[in-house]
Amino acid sequence: MNSKVAAFLAVLLIVSSTSVWFIFTAISQDSTNVTVHFIDVGQGDSILIDTSNKDVLIDAGRPSKSSIVLNYLDSLSITHIHLMIVTHVHEDHIGGLVGVLESTIIVDEILINGQSSTIGAYTDFMNLAQSHTVTVAQRGQNFILTETANLTVFNPIQPLEFTDKNANSIVVKLQVSDTSFLLTGDATADAEQSMLDDLMLDLQSDILKVGHHGSATSTTQSFLDNVSPDSAIICSGGEYGHPHEETIQKLLSKGVTTYGTYLSGTIIASTDGTTVTFPDNPEPIPELQTSLILPIFVIMTLLAVIVYQKKLR
Ligand SMILES: [Zn+2]
């Protein structure tokens, strides 16, 4: 072999091995990346877990919000949902899923909590669900999404523990390598206590989807202490006084960076398995709520007047 041919073969070997390495790392990075979309549907929840393999849709807001969710899926070219989760039978969660089932989106499996309801959306949903694989959620169930991502059901247990529909919400923990998301539906303090009592459950998560739109009937201090999230997301349209000030203060005083769909619209969180980032840089909920500024101003003024009058005496 002359030296020119040898040099050519050496260059060829270097170029081809480098491109193989580039392609391999690109593929492996893509396959570990998971993006969680907290879709703004006003009052209600809708969460899309987008992985390189299986995609999951949790709730879709009220019946009128199915078009928002369908447009959002379309914008991401998603035509196939591998797992649809309906956290519970309230209209602001199950409602929009009816439109998704009526659409051309392929849905493989549907996870329900097994509680029935008399609302029209529930009847419509169950009629459409019959042509799919329907699974009843049970604490401990695990769904593999990719080699590095899986979902575990934390709530409810079967038979259902509660009569309250929110309390029976399906709660799932999404684990992506070293990062995790706890998605709580409208789980109440009772459901939180049930999860705290089960020592098999590792509640600690990087991201908490705050229960029941930030209502004070969820997110107890002990639950929050155990989850100990870095960031929290509140899905709310600002109705029913949600989120409650008490919940926001609880999160902020624990140093949790908190975002709200009612402030930022759809919130996107992305993980490579090591770090969770918010690529759109949503604005966190400020430390001091504007609703508190006026009462604090009034109190400070009154104190100043009292101090001034005492000095005059
Ligand atoms: Zn709700």
Set down the secondary structure blueprint:
Blueprint: H1 3-32, E1 34-38, E2 47-50, E3 56-58, H2 66-75, E4 80-85, H3 91-102, E5 106-112, H4 120-129, E6 133-136, E7 142-144, E8 149-155, E9 171-176, E10 179-183, H5 189-197, E11 207-209, H6 221-227, E12 231-234, H7 245-253, E13 257-260, H8 261-264, E14 267-271, E15 276-277, H9 290-312
Parallel strand pairs: 3-4, 4-5, 5-6, 10-11, 11-12, 12-13
Antiparallel strand pairs: 1-2, 1-14, 2-3, 7-8, 8-9, 9-10, 14-15
The protein binds zinc ion.
Structural overview:
Mean pLDDT is 91; it is low at 20-29. The strands form 2 sheets. The chain has an 8-stranded mixed β-sheet with strand order 6-5-4-3-2-1-14-15. It contains 9 helices and 15 strands. With 313 residues, it is an alpha/beta fold. It folds into 2 domains: 1-32; 34-298, Metallo-beta-lactamase, Chain A, CATH 3.60.15. The structure holds zinc ion. Zinc ion (ZN) is lined by residues 44, 90, 92-93, 186, 213.
Give average pLDDT, whole number.
91
What CATH first level of the largest domain would be assigned? Alpha Beta
Approximate strand percentage: 15-25%
CATH H-level superfamily of the largest domain? Ribonuclease Z/Hydroxyacylglutathione hydrolase-like
Write down how many β-strands occur, each being a DSSP E stretch of 2 or more residues.
15
Biggest sheet layout: 8 strands, mixed
Ligands, deduplicated = zinc ion
What is the chain-wise order of helices and strands?
Answer: HEEEHEHEHEEEEEHEHEHEHEEH
